[in-house]
Structures are given as structure tokens and as C-alpha cells.
Target: SPOR domain-containing protein
Amino acid sequence: MKTRALFTAGMSALVLGGTVFVCATGPGGIATASTRAETDVEKAAAREVATARKAFGKGKYDQAVAHAEAAVGFGPQVASYRMLLAQSYLRAGRFSSARQSFADVLALEPSNGGAALQLALTEIAEGNWDGARRTLDANASIIPASDRGLAIALAGDPGTAVEVLVAAVRTPGSDAKTRQNLALALALAGRWQDAKTLIAVDVAPAEVDKRIMEWASFARPTSASDQVAALLGVTPAQDSGQPVALALNMPRGTALASTGSVPVETVAPSQPATAVAVATEASLPAETSVAAVAAPASYVSFGPRQEMVQSIPARVARMKPEPRDTPGAAVSPIVAPKAARLVTAKPKPVAGAAVAPRITAKGNFFVQLGAFESAAVAKDAWGRATRREAGFGGQKPSGMPIKSAAGSFYRLSVGGFARNDANALCKSYKAKGGTCFVRASAGDQPASWVK
Model:
């Protein structure tokens, strides 16, 4: 899962050397020494933040940590500085330091759901599953159910996670990421066949068995940090905690000291799952080796939701089992193209512009556009899709009701194409901001609203 750092401007009271500087001016508005000192400190903090952000963007997380620590030193009460520091620690694999920093952010901003969720994740990574569940319970109102449900599963309570995510999936507007998070929670609860059925709602048939085997490996961590590290795509590092001098409200001049950390080899709670057991439950070949499967792909994502169902990335860090979709990365809203102005001359083709593919050949392949709560919602989605992609014009949509452990959905697709034509159409649609994938026919029938 990609994490999002929050960078905001502004500073509160600055504590330097145990002295609190306040904004003050002398007679006639002339700045005093205290004001000038505060301005210098603010500028220094801003420089450190800018440098940290730049390093973070380039994936140089150790450098980001160093500069974010300096920024926090200049402005210990600025929540955005501490959020930047927490995110940098997290991406550097320093879970103990990240946990303390996220706790500090939450103390400064009690309504910060992203900090609360990531605090729970770092607690899970340290093996403090009871503490993580308490954090999730205490902040249930500010953490989206789709994110909270998956975190509960990782904290060793997949049964409760399934309950939370089933409710989220049945909420109007739920998306593919939420369903996939529910599917993962079902797998962690040992309900492999239910997980497989739900995966198939949003994933191409050829990818279903592959994902099940990846999840089988994911369900058997060897240390407490394995699953969280896989979801975030980070490598755990030995970490003694953030410098004591950076503790919230800590007076300046305090010597740096270790806060201690939980050994990364602590074993996480999991359900034993052998390759044969998983293969049997999910109707896969028993000879398939779980050990041969690479680290789980990042399908889980604690991030923003999208209006239409997405195809899931190839990694477990972005998995969402129930109706929900990643304080993950914010997704830009789908915007209908602006109306073109009338022209008298023939417009010249724009280099690199996506052109609607010509569909001529017929075949057995379909472009799946998503799974929705009902045929009515799917019809509305089809209307948006045709406005975005000219290639859908004149095509008849297909629809099919699907039943799963999460409830009933209506799958929307368009097809009867040759494979190359289906691939070209899906590629064109994606280039214009849509989401889709190509699959073979699976009993698709004309949509219920098509006469």
C-alpha cells in the first residue's frame, strides 16, 4: 500500500532550549528579537520539510527521516511535521519509531483517522495485537470500515473482520477494493472457497487461482512484521525507537536514548494453512507448492475509494475484501470530458492521443467494467462509460447477477470481441481514466435494461 504523508504549512508555539517564543512586536509594529528568532526557526523548519519531502518522493527514506526529525525538532507541536516523520519511519521499515510518531500525531490531532489506522498497523507489526485492536476500536468512528476491517483481520481477529467488511460491502457505493479486502479476511478466517468466489467477482478468471495461492503464503507469516511489511512493500529494519529528544512535549536538551522495540522475529498469530489444505479447500491442484509462491502481491490498499470497480494490482499490499476501496492514496474523481468546440476545418490528430479502436472482428472475449450493487447502478455506470469511451458507442452491454458470501452484485461487461479488439478497447478506456479487464465469456447475457 502506498502511504500518504500529510504536508501542511504553519507552525504553533516553538520550543527552543526550553524557551517558548511567541509572536510579539514592539512599539510601532517593529519586530522584536523574539519575533525574528521565531521567523528564522520557521524558515529552518520549512527547509527541512521541503528536503524531507523531496527525499521521500525519491524513495530515499533514511534521508527523509533525518530531515523530518530536524523539522520536528524545530516545531515539536506541528502535527504535519510529525506525520511526515511517521510516514518516513514507516517507509524505512522502522515500525517502533513509526508507532511512537503516529501516536504523537493522534495526540495532536485526535480526528486524524489516517494516523489512527497506521498506528494500529505498526502495533500489529510489533506483535502488539491486543493494543492494535484497542486502537481500532477506540477510533472506529474515524477509520473507514473497509480499512478497519482488514486491519482487524491482520490483528488476529478475522471473524470480526468478516462481520465489519460484510457490512461495508453491502453499503451503497462499495467498490472492488472493499470486496477484495473481505475476500482476504475470509481467507485468513479459513473460508477459502468463499474467498475464491468473491475474488472472481472483480478479477479475471485466469488470476483467481494465482491470488489464492499468494494469499495462502500471506496467511502463514513467520514474524509479526511480515504481513504489514508485505502490504506496505517495505523491508523491516532493526529499530530502537525515535530519539527521546523528539518525544511530544519533551524539554530541549534531553539526551537521546533508545525507547526499545519488539524483536522483528516475533511470530504473528495466523491460521495454519498447508499447501494441500488450501488447494483442497479452494479446489486447486494439491501439488501446487505454497512455498514456491512469491511474497503476496499488493492487492490490499489502505487508500481512497473510486467510483467504479477497479481491477486489483498485482500485489497483496492493496487488497480490500469487502465493499470499500486504499489513509490510502487519494484518487482523482472521474470527470466527464468537456464538450468540444465546433470547428470548420478538419482537426489534426494529436500525437499520443487515445483513439477509439475500431471493433470489427467477433469472438469470445469481454471487457468487464465492474460489479455493482444492482442492475440500476450498473446501468448508470454504463452511461458514464459510454460518455468517456467512444468505442463503447453502438455496443450492447452485458449483465449478470452474481451471488457471493458478501451478497449479490450485478456484473457489467461488453463483448463478443476478438481478443485483440477487446484488449485494444480496454486499453483505450483505461487511457481515459476508466477501469476494466479482459476475460473470456462466462455466460454473459444482454443487460436487463437492453431491449
The mean pLDDT is 73. Residues 29 and 420 are 72 Å apart (CA to CA). The chain has two domains: 14-249, 362-446.
